[in-house]
Design brief:
Radius of gyration: 21 Å
Strand content: 15-25%
Shape: globular
Distance between the termini: 27 Å
Number of strands: 15
Structural class: alpha/beta
Helix content: 25-40%
Order of helices and strands: EEHHHHEHEEHHEHHEHHEHEEHEHEEEHE
Length: about 500
């Protein structure tokens, strides 16, 4: 049998600025923390980053029409895009005065960015970059498609965060990014500016992509290759608090100039244990890791016990990024994440479940997406959208099955009444995968980075069949069973 999606269901892809825009001369953005981080020789020698450089990337800044043509030919009707903060504001915006209100605990509870402040920001901004972004977004919108704009996908302007100096001198003696609550105010200015200049081209807004990755990888999993590589649990908590405030103040700033829905895109994973006696501990981890941030901006419950009305209700939709699961067990009397499951599998090999792993070593586990969508929907009464889902699979061995099996989970969730608005694949083309550089390929479309030529992988035609007809046809229904790929 076939599996039909609603007529208004969105099929598309997501992209970010740093990973996709650069590649041809004139597209470089050398004013961000990630730029200096991946160019740093100490990081390259230590193996923290690949040595690949983003200025050799896909070249979307210049080749966007070609990519939009491909996306349209594959039946896609939605894109989630991005603006690079450092491209728009390579110079500091601190001196543009806005009205900031703090409570008795010094929390930032209001940032007002009126039009005179936006006019002053225009004198600092790279307005040619603004113009070119408008051309990119308009090219997609003029095709009658849906455009979702995300404001922050990890790089910060260097004037706000210098990760090399933070590592060398400490966060109190360097531009420290989300550890400095001035970042909350500057992000609100940025959000107001972007909303003012792009609202006519945007159908939905997102303030941030995966804030949890930023404050976890940068300060806890410091060997991950994420800036600033500064090990401090206290810093991680502080960054999380400021990012929560930044989302809420950006939400307000966008709403001052837009009536469109404003959401948050979060990095989710299905978290579970096979041991019943560990379920309470694992649920506590799940509530902290997956839901504490969203609880803060949905219900006003912060990472501690404090309740803040200025945070409550700042969430119109949730973007669900999903790739695999975490499985917890007990080792030597301690709770631990089990090897051989989820994100802890041998790259390109097989997991303990018998299922294959991606080139990243991530288990193919589509059931987790279905479970997550149901759990998220039970906690938050807002629309959901799958905003990232894909696989590092250079030879395209598994992508078709990965794609169809995950879409089948989305289909079942929609059929059961969940308000899931769409599915955005990660991604249309191969891209610069942060610290891993060009080693991992997520694209439906293969990119020759030397020539920038695009070549469709076989899985692109599978996605085309589903997206164009808004259904998984019977001829592809066998791909919903991921166990067909399992090692017996």
């Amino acid at each position: 049998m076939s599996y039909k999606f609603p007529k208004d269901f969105l099929f598309g892809y997501s992209w970010s600025g740093f990973q996709f825009e650069m590649g041809l001369e004139g597209s470089e953005v050398p004013y961000s923390d990630w730029w200096v981080w991946v160019h740093d020789q100490e990081n390259i020698i230590a193996g923290l980053v690949s040595g690949d450089l983003p200025e050799n990337g896909p070249g979307y800044w210049h080749l966007y029409k070609q990519d939009h043509d491909i996306a349209e030919s594959l039946g896609m009707n939605a894109i989630r895009g991005c603006v690079e903060w450092a491209r728009i504001f390579p110079k500091p915006t601190f001196d543009v005065s806005v009205d900031v209100e703090r409570d008795e605990d010094d929390n930032i509870i209001r940032v007002d960015v009126p039009e005179p402040a936006i006019e002053k920001l225009e004198k600092i901004a790279d307005m040619e970059a603004v113009k070119h972004y408008r051309e990119i977004f308009a090219d997609w919108k003029e095709r009658g498609k849906t455009f979702i704009l995300n404001l922050y996908h990890w790089p910060l302007p260097l004037w706000l965060h210098d990760p090399i100096k933070v590592r060398k001198f400490g966060p109190d003696r360097a531009p420290s990014g989300w550890l400095d609550d001035r970042s909350v105010v500057e992000f609100a200015k940025f959000a107001a500016f972007i909303s003012y200049h792009f609202d006519d081209l945007v159908d939905m807004w997102s303030t941030m992509n995966e804030p949890n990755v930023v404050y976890q990888q940068g300060y806890i999993n410091f060997k991950s290759g994420f800036p600033p590589g500064y090990l401090s649990f206290e810093a991680s908590i502080k960054a999380a608090k400021n990012m929560i405030q930044a989302h809420a103040r950006a939400y307000d700033a966008i709403k001052a100039y837009s009536k469109k829905p404003v959401g948050l895109i979060y990095a989710f994973a299905w978290i579970e244990t096979f041991d019943e006696k560990l379920e309470e501990q694992v649920n506590n981890i799940k509530n902290q890791v997956l839901y504490a941030f969203i609880d803060a901006v949905y219900a006003g419950r912060t990472l501690g016990t404090e309740e803040r009305k200025d945070l409550k209700g700042r969430l119109d939709w949730i973007g669900v990024n999903y790739y695999s699961r975490h499985v917890f067990g007990e080792k030597d009397g301690k709770l631990t994440m089990l090897d051989g499951y989820g994100f802890n599998c041998p790259p390109g090999g097989y997991c303990r479940s018998g299922r294959p792993a991606s080139d990243f070593g991530w288990e193919i586990y589509p059931e987790g997406l279905g479970k997550l969508l149901r759990e998220i929907a039970s906690r938050y009464n807002v629309p959901l959208m799958v905003t990232e889902n894909g696989i590092a699979d250079e030879t395209d061995r598994y992508r078709s099955c990965y794609l169809v099996s995950h879409l089948y989970e989305v289909y079942k969730a929609v059929k059961d009444g969940l308000n899931v608005k769409g599915y955005l694949h990660w991604s249309l083309t191969d891209n610069y995968e942060w610290a891993q550089g060009f080693r991992k390929r997520f694209g439906l479309v293969y990119i020759d980075y030397n020539t920038k030529k695009r070549y469709l992988r076989p899985s692109a035609f599978i996605y085309k069949e589903i997206a164009k007809n808004k259904e998984i046809p019977e001829e592809l229904s066998h791909l919903t069973n991921i166990d067909a790929l399992a090692r017996k």
